[in-house]
Amino acid sequence: MTASCRLAAVGLACSLGSDVDEVWPRLRSADGGLLTRRDDLVKGTPRFFGQVLETLPEIPAGLERYACRNNRIAMACYRGIEPAVEAAIARYGAGRVATVVGSSTAGVAEAEHAIAQWRRSGSLPARFDLVQLEYGGLSEFVSALSGAAGPAYALSTACSTGAKTLASARSLLELGLCDAVIAGAVDSLCAVTANGFHALQAMSAEITNPMSQRRSGLTLGEGGALFLLTREEGGIALAGVGEASDAHHISAPDPAGRGAEISMRGALADAGIDAADIAYLNLHGTGTAQNDAMESDAVARVFSPPPPCSSTKPLIGHTLGASGALEAAFCWLILDRREGDRLHLPPHRYDGDYDENLPALDLVADAGSVAVGAPAHVMTNSFGFGGSNCALVLRSEA
Amino acid sequence: MSEVVVVDWAAWSPGIASRRDWESWAQDPRPLGHEGAPEVRFLPALQRRRCDRLSRMCLQAVHDAVPEALRGGLLSVFASRHGSFENMAAMLCDLADGSPLSPNRFSHSVHNTQAGLFSIWAGNREASTCVAAGAETFGAGFLEGMGMLHRHPGAPLLLVVGDEPVPEPFDTLASGTGAYALAFLLQNGDGDAEGTRVGLRFGPGEEGSLDAFVPDGLAFLRWLISDQESLRLAHPGRSWLFARG
Asked: pTM for the complete prediction?
């Protein structure tokens, strides 16, 4: 069994907004009206994108070499945990606060502009720095921004990245190598990922429609979430982690969903609970034919009956590496905004035409809620390229 | 201090492949080569064709470090500063030229490409993760390995560290280490595994005084096969202090 690991603070940014009080009502009502239609990322092919709509903070003086949109989104997320990080540094010392953050894009968008200029003029823009394109540039930046001076590194395992940063952060706490960890993930829209998924024929022409018989692919998004994890008791805890590899294909999930199933069972066992204890499951739910078939099968094998579940990707898009962190932040909010014995749940926003070839899931309807005891548990799934799977269980005591 | 046991290792760089090659390199380190890739004949032909050079180097080192019977049951951490950068750079050029992206190249550009290819080749369904941390990438991979051994007790862990020269035009912005991959087989220090027990702690940072052409992973390998008691890898933010247990 694992020691207590508290998700002491959270900050986030996505198309629904960039602080928890702005995001929560839009999440609860499954506000899908904030996606943006753009035809500049895949030239001449309009697609919906979940975009961070606020004007992002400017990179502080002295950190100009890290100036990319991805790091500015990280700054927007960081605002939500800044007071808690400052308190942790004051309490434990800066060297005892570690940073484990991740991304699948880092500053690719800036590298796209840099290469385009190089092709035209033979030289890279003076403001471009290779550190913007390095995943480790994100951990360096967050560490410098926060003043956390403990070990700092980045994870990048495609779409499971964000979930896995929380798993790693908890291990560092349990090993006693630090007393608090900044963890989470950030991704930003760029032409590489949009054109890459377009080349894989994985992007939906309409807003993604997970679990529908008419689903036709994913909608991309950007954003992030950062947490401060501590060893303190109480509050909302990271109670369980399950991880597995598919051993199947570099970009398609194992149709049998074995890695997904191992991850969910592993997270339940790690949390020391039964499947019936899960009050809500945030699906990976990308809206691709393969993911939804594999995931619904795996959920039906692990849970009987399946808990209330929804994909929040029709609201914010698939934020790739950030999705595991953002969706964990949504789970955190669900537990944080508990009213008495009820959790309010984000509805599954789709065309309502469930794919009857899939096992039945209890998709959350409008104004959905569920009765819980104390403690309450929720789960979130993340599955990525390379067959990288991670499931997390969050717990609130009351 | 947390400890792990280094049970075995192997490494590949152009012209330096056998254990004897590495032992003589460790006596007199010279800059690593930039050209060439291992043949990886042990891979099925289709998979071999899809492997970029970093993947070939990493899988060769894994093949040489770990017997086949163990490969399916290993936890794994893959650490690389730049990952499959050649695929990324080629996609950036394609976009600048208005060319469509290759789905295969896109699929093999993620930072966990080598981890995914290893999982497929070895039939490995265990937990795996991928790390990057600039010049401190090796230490971060080692630390992540300690964490993973802690949260999945019992299984041995494969730590793979590799990078290759950054391609044009980004090469002008990068420190020019050559091409290499290292694979270490690690066990949790709580058990009675045979090998070199290694502990890790942190010290204050300082400006680097290490040989610029010896990346941290290879400095660690040099130390591992030496008779020195401890190793200090100094970076501006912190020093990584490794000691024999």
From this structure: 0.97
